[in-house]
Queue: 2 jobs
Job 1
Amino acid sequence: MDLLKAPQQLPSPTHEVIVVLEKVHFAIDHVDTASRSHEIISYYCVSKADEIRRRIQCASIVIATQAFITAESLGEAPHLKCVITPTAGTNHIDLDECRRRGVRVAKCPGSTSPAAAEHALSLYFAARRKTVLLHNDIRTVDEQGENAWKRQRSIALKMQTANEQPPCSIEEEVVGIIGHGHIGKRIEALCEALGMKVLIAERKSAPVRNATGALRKRTPFGEVIRTATAFFISCTSNPDTQHMIDTAELSAMRPEAIIVNVSRGNVVNTAEVVGALRERRISGAAADVFDREPASTRQDSAFLAENTRDLNLTFSPHVGYFSMKTMHTMDAMVKERIRNFVDGDLSKFEA
């Protein structure tokens, strides 16, 4: 466990104290703060609210990847002027309280998009081809040293969809992308390059129609739900998108459908997805995100219940962002945001 570290000097108009809360996700060792002096205090990770409060008490600038910056923690950080997240989302930061206190907030949109999109495709292929289930069958042997393959001579039928058809090929796949931001656009490009048909869903709550033709025409949300065979969920998490994929949507999907979630865990009702898989109404699901993270048990996500091990579920522990390009991009963007703040250029700050 990291010990609390005191700054050599408290923040002042000529000195910045930069606190990196989660070096496990993002580290920074030097930065240009122009004529101001600065020091960087880094912690490997942080999870408890009281740890966050103590560690930002003397900070003027905080780098927070996933740590929750709440009204309570902000109330105990009298020197804090700026919060920067290396990611595209700010749902872990209380923006309203930051505005009230005059704390500026900046994010780094697009920093993770290439890696996250590639990771989404890897989850898609694993779910479509049931790679995890087949892997487990190969590695599970009985007392005679035989696995299902050796006993049955072929387990290809295990790859069938919920309606007992062979898995879709790329040319047959109809992709529905829900969330057409940086990651969604990158997923679209990759899928089209592979030869898949791609549908971009309108927003469920507030359809966006393009009367001028200036933007690519989107497909109504309900039509995408009924038509697509593979769904990529890459939207932001907000009250409108919570449980966007729920009972009604799952009931309307084709039996070949698989769902890949790389947005946030609460966008998909995982308990309902488990039920749909159990009843063979859809064919598979994959996720890089969970309702509560880090996740390990049913209390964190219905996906992780003991009785789901036989279902076509593929998971990764919220690592879709991780690549050499991502880390280089994050480093450059965070340093740029710090320099922007020091220089008084607030054009890229939300609050």
Job 2
Amino acid sequence: MIYERLIKIINARLPRHGAFALLEEKTGISARAWAHVWHGRTKPSADHLEQICLLYPEYTLWLMTGRTSPEAEQTSPDLEQLEELKKTVGP
């Protein structure tokens, strides 16, 4: 389940092309290691999870537990997308 949430964050926040190279640049974890995780060849390590939490702290609670807490500024990509849609559609 954490794996699926990690992939959702990567897909939501990073460009389709060059995501792994960008993650390598920002985290110090090789692009190859990120690609292996994304493709399901290996499970994400504690280092992968820590680095994503440092890059996107607003997703930490959701990544680790599947829960959100908007009052604590803890959200998920889906909740953010819903909020953006609400702004577009209006009241």
